[in-house]
Each structure stands twice: as C-alpha cells, then as structure tokens.
Known about the structure:
The protein is an alpha+beta fold. The protein is 45% helix and 16% strand.
Amino acid sequence: MLxxxxxxxxxxxxxxxxxxxxxxxxxxxxxxxxxxxxxxxGDPYYSHPVEVAGILTKFxxxxxxxxxxxxxxxxxDTDTTVEEVRELFGDQxxxxxxxxxxxxxxxxxxxxxxxxxxxRKLLLAMSEDIRVLLIKLADRLHNMRTLHFCAPEKRARIxxxxxxxxxxxxxxxxxxxxxxxxxxxxxxxxHKEAHDSxxxxxxxxxxxxxxxxxxxxxxxxxxxxxxxxxxxxxGREKTxxxxxxKMQQKNASFEQLSDIMAxxxxxxxxxxxxxxxxxxxxxxxxxxxxxxxxxxxPKPNGYQSIxxxxxxxxxxxxEIQIRTHEMHEIGExxxxxxxxxxxxxxxxxxxxxxxxxxLEILEQASNPEEFLENTxxxxxxxxxxxxxxxxxxxxxPVNSTPVDFAYAVHSSVGDTCVGAKINGEIRPLRTVLxxxxxxxxxxxKAQHPSTEWERFVVTGKAKAAIRRYVRAYKREQFITxxxxxxxxxxKGESLEFSEKGLVNVLPNFEAETIDDIxxxxxxxxxxxxxxxKAVYPGYKQSKLEKVVKSVKLPSFKKLVKPKKGKxxxxxxxxxxxxxxVHFAGCCHPLPGDxxxxxxxxxxxxxxxxxxxxxxxxxxxxxxxxLDIAWGEEAENEMHTGRLKIMLANEPGTLAELSNLIARxxxxxANLNIINRTISYFEILVDVEVKDLKHLTDIIAALKASKVxxxxxxxxx
Length: 716
C-alpha cells in the first residue's frame, strides 16, 4: 500500500502545483473514517481507496481526482456526509464523490434492476464531470485485482458486470490498458478453461517462434531506416480475451487467426505515417479487407492509427499499426492523456457524443432494466463509418441501417424517417450500411416510428426511441378503448358514470390518473366490472341471460377516428393500426370466417371465429367484445388452419398426405399424432393457407384420397 508521503510525491512529480495540504488531509481523513473496517482479504479497508488513488496517479490526474479517489467510499460506507466532504475539500470533490456513491436505499425487485439504477446515477454524474468515470474505472480495476478473495458467486457476478459495462466504458474513453486488464481478469473468472487453453497455446508459440518476433521487428526497423524514416518499432501480442472474442465472432479456431501478433511503427508526425504505409505496401503484399485508416476517420473515443494486414517479413501474415507518438499515448491512456480541465476548462461528460446518446436513452427508457439493455447495445462498438451529405462523419455499430443512422444524427430525424439515399440511390430502410457510405435521410412530418423498425435496428438509441413511441401510441389506443368500455358498462347497468367516482378509486388499481384506469381496462389488465364494483361497492351484478351469439357487439371503428394520410391496408378492420392483436389457438380463424374480438388480460385483442366454443365463458362480459372483420391485407398473408385427419397406418401414407397438401399450395406448419391403432393414425395437422376457401379446397383433395378415411376442420 502506498504511504502518505509516497502518494503526495507521485502527484507532485507530474503536477508541482498540486495542493499538498489537501492531499495529506484526504489521506488521513480516509484512514480515520474507514477505521477498523476490513476488506474480504483481511486487509484494512482504507488500503482500497489508497490503491485507487495510486492507479489514478499513473494517469497523471489532478489533485482533485486523487482526493476524490481517496474519499470515494466514505459517504457510502461510513458516517460521512456529502456536505462534510464539501466543507472540508470543496465543491468539485463533493460533486465527484456524490456521483460515485451508490444509491443507498433502492427498493427494487431484482439485482439487475439495482445494478441498472446505480448505472443511471453514474451516467448522470459522469455527464457533469468525466472524472467520475475515471475514478470509477480505477475503483473497479482494484476490485478486480483482488477478486480472488470473494466468494465464487460474487466473483462471477462482478466479472459479468465488468465485461458488460465497465470494460466497454473504458474502451469508449480510449483507456486501452484499463480495458484490457479488466477483460482479462473477468475472462479468466467466467471462462477459465478457454482462458487457460489460449494462454497455454500462446506460451507454446512463444517457445516455438522465440526468434520470429525480434526478426520481424528488426526487418521493419531496417525498412524504415533505409527510407530515411525515424521510427520506433515494437511487437504486441493480443490478449487472450481479444483472441477468444475473435474466435467467437468468426467461428474460427486458434490456428485460423492470422493477427495474434500486432506490430507498431511509431513516427513523429501524420505525414510520416502515410509515408511509412507506402513503404510497407510497396514491399509486402497487402491482405485484402485488412486496411483501416483511423487517422482520417478517428474512432469516437479519439483513437487514431492506420491498421493494415500484410504478408510481412519471414513470409508471416501480420497486422501493422502506424501512428504518431501522441496518437500512441492517447491510444493507451485515452481521455486521461489530454485533460480538458488542465487548460482551465470543465471536464463535462456531455462534451462526449456517446455520453449524450446514453443520456437520451436514459430519458426514453420505460424502466431501469430496459435502459441497461439499450446501453449495453450502445457501448459495444465494432464500427462502420458513414458520412452525411455535408461530409460529417457518423460512427455506428456493425450491421447498422439507415434508421440507426437517422437516430444518430438526431432523434427527430429518426422519428420522421421515411426513406434513405445511400451513395445517391434510394435504398430500403433495412439496408445494412458499409464503411464509407454516404447516407441522406428522407423525412416527412406525417411519418412516425414503426414497430417493424425494432426488428432490424441495432443501436440502443434507436431501439429506445422506437419503444418509447410504441408505448405512447398503444397507451392512447387502450385509453380510448377503456373509456368506451366503462361508459357502456355503466350505462347498461343504469348507473351514473363520472370521473369523480373514478378519482376516488385510483388507489384500488395502483393508478395515478384516470387515464391509467382507462388504459388498464383497455389492455385487459383490469375488467370493467372490477371498476364498477370499486365505484359502487354495494352493487350486485345483474345476471345476464344472453348466449354468445346474441351479444350485441360494440363497433370499435366508431371509437377512434383514423388519422389522416393513413391509407395502409389493415389485417383486421375495427382496430387501430399497430394495436396488439393475436389469433386464438382454439379455433384458428381464417379470412372468410366470421370473427369477433375479445379484449384479453395483458395481450390486447384475441381474434376468435364467431362459433368458437371458448366464447361461452365471455357471455357475461359484453364489455370485452369488439366488432371486427378481415381487412384487405389479410388476403395477402398466410394463416394457419387446423385439420383433424384419420390416416391409414401403412407405409407411405404420411408422404401422400404431405404431397396432397403441397400440390394444393398448402404448407404443413405442425403435425401431432393424438391417437394410434393398428389400422389408423389420428392426427392434428396445422396447415398454412391463404383463407377459408383455400383450406376447404385442401380438405376436398384429402377426402378423395384412399388412405384418408376422415378429414375435417378441427374444433377445440
């Protein structure tokens, strides 16, 4: 553990103007406050904040960061308050320590939810001061270095969290050294066998090719000197985790990987970088699709370098990275290598585009777990780089689409996106973007996000925005439907319906507003009768003596006026486009059947045939019935019809059955044998057809077969 004077000397060695008195006071304060507390290892607890401060000195951070590192656990784990820290060490230290302090009382249902809440707070804090993130990473790094003292279950949880959140965060701010060490420790814990296997293989290669790396370095150094270039050449072995991840991504074995070793050529300026590249490519064969120029198009974290794959010295396939000394420093230490506030500026996280995007996801997510999921998507950044028509560069994850690009430009552009021109040609919105594409987004004020988009977008920001719109849009539908159901029910029972009565029963349904009750009724989470009985506790429901077929169906078409400009063909008439709907598995309705809609609990509207026996249980709940009919779009899609068939138990009969269905343009989706005798099979067959007539034609064809003794449409 660093002693007090050693820590102060380290800080003064790179920052002579550091506040020595404050550093000494912070060191003593942390020791006193943590007192006799012990870590899992048995060491005094204050050794942890001291080691965290020591890690921060390696990145040459200012004294405010070092003091905050020393105090980062005092508010959470001792009786210290944020106000006490502010009074003793100033506003900046207090703000950083508060940002690092976990939420003390989180009454959440799951550990994942708690993790998400803590991450939300960390994100908001680091958006105000990026030093919060740097100290948090140093804190996590020291915890990972002492991970072996924890119980196995805790080790696995912390390692998984590190790979999901903290290693990608370190990568996003360019702290390659921290990222690599975090990944390695977590990888060894979560996938010990794979880790040990790769390490053993690397050790074997080192022994086998012990002279190869020095020979390659010597030759590359000679190539540079012969052309008058002053350069530092070094070799770097890729980490076991990066090798394993590449094996997973490419579904390749260790032997199939060609870039286990990377060689760096570090020169004085940018012009010399390209001169060195020309020398390498003129002397050695370039490997196709292995060239990346991150100097002209830097990564979002500021990383710059030229990467190229060649068949290099000793006829070995290698990767070469060419960069300046400054680029190398930033590549290893990231944002810590060029502090904004060293020049007197505030180190606001909002200056980083990716943090602004995470903040937008935070605003749009409906719950902490959804936020955490979308944030993970946003932080994994194997990237493609595309350009706006004005030449601005947009970095996106691999497999991104124009919709992802639109949301990366601005949320309003994404919400109103109707089309895209890629390199001057109009292309579908689901087109996968390639490096260097120029993308122009076409917008319309009448457009809104489509539920279909969520199937192909890959960025967390796009997914969060689409989900937010869908939630709001469906809620509007359910509110309208729920209000109509309640008004009709109260009127049918000759009872007064008033919003005043609903206000009085809001707590009964865990609702904050009347719209919340309407939405729950419309979605089927709460029934109309539940609300009626809450408003009129002494009221007894009149016995309905109506059978299913005699129920008068309310027309949902009258409830909501269709929006102008929406001329899309509908699968089901009588429902708003996008409303949650599913086809009942008891009767398998087909276009051509008379159908009815039933508002179900939590699943939207279920579509049944009008003669389905399952409808009998809804006879006393007329408020749940909707008048619906098949729309034009339904005729263009395949639907599932169910047949009950008695088939001779002979060789080849199943083949004849499937051939008959196929010749009549049907497709077997599922087949289930429900009874079997010596002579016959009794089976249920789900067949994909266009409509009722199509299914009837298939039934007629099957009835004509000698091996089929009985066939009919199956009923529940």
